[in-house]
Design a protein that fits this description.
Elements: H1 2-14, H2 19-32, H3 40-65, H4 71-94, H5 97-117, H6 130-147, H7 152-161, H8 166-192, E1 202-203, E2 206-207, H9 208-228, H10 234-258
Antiparallel strand pairs: 1-2
């Protein structure tokens, strides 16, 4: 419940998905529960992906009310995102826990460095055609499935680089986060189905009790984070959050290699 609440507040405060927080902490919790080493990262990624579904839905509805979603971009990105995310879960199932942990840590450290430096791509081109957007969706979905993110850290920079205004980029990214979460959760559920050694309450690589406890609190507390965003120094908090993400990523690698 506490983890879900923290994820919701951070999502509302900084507009960042919760995978970077959920995956390392879930990995540590699964170690304490005696989950076999070979399933640690897969179970954490699958559970985090499923937990993103309700949060993505709430975010999508909010941005839709404000008219901040470019639906023609969503339609062009979604087929590639669905295919890329779903297929990447099959790739993840073949990668050992140690490899997934290293990939996750490297991606989160790069994302944190980008946040610390506040690097933003300059709008230098227009949106590609349907084929180009489909290819972009394929890449965004594939990486998102391997690190359990809603795609915002990839979709927003891509869209702003293509001259889409930032508010529309954020709203459109929120909309494509839902198919990412759905395809990712379904893929991890299928790939883990019937795998021996998982907790009794797991459905594939999705641990249902964690999902049911995290999701409501992330939804309830996301508006609190959004309100705090107007009162707190968000730029400074973003830097602190970046350092925290680095620490969590490194902690996940340490946990996996010492489990």
């Amino acid at each position: 419940m506490a983890l879900g609440g923290v994820v919701g507040i951070m999502a509302g405060l900084l507009g960042i998905g919760g995978g970077g927080i959920m995956v390392p902490i879930l990995t540590a919790l699964f170690v304490m529960q005696g989950v076999p080493h070979e399933h640690l990262a897969h179970l954490a990624l699958g559970t985090a992906m499923a937990a993103i579904i309700p949060a993505s839905t709430a975010s999508l509805l909010s941005h839709r009310r404000h008219g901040a979603v470019r639906w023609e971009i969503v339609r062009s990105l979604t087929p590639g995102i669905l295919v890329g995310t779903f297929l990447a879960t099959f790739l993840a199932a073949l990668i050992p826990t140690s490899g997934l942990a290293i990939f996750f840590a490297c991606f989160m450290i790069l994302m944190s460095l980008q946040m610390l430096a506040n690097l933003k791509p300059k709008p230098t081109r227009n949106l590609p055609g349907p084929a180009g957007l489909g290819g972009a969706g394929l890449g965004i979905g594939g990486i998102s499935a391997l690190v359990a993110i809603g795609g915002g850290s990839l979709t927003v920079p891509f869209l702003t680089w293509c001259n889409v205004k930032l508010p529309m980029s954020i709203g459109t990214s929120a909309a494509v986060g839902l198919p990412i979460a759905l395809a990712g959760a379904l893929g991890y559920l299928i790939n883990g189905w019937g795998t021996p050694g998982l907790p009794d309450a797991a459905m594939g690589f999705v641990y249902v009790p964690a999902l049911l406890l995290m999701a409501p609190f992330s939804i309830l507390l996301a508006p609190v984070g959004a309100r705090l965003a107007h009162r707190l120094p968000v730029a400074m908090l973003k830097r602190v959050f970046a350092v925290m993400l680095m620490g969590l990523a490194l902690q996940m690698v340490y946990t996996v290699f010492n489990a």
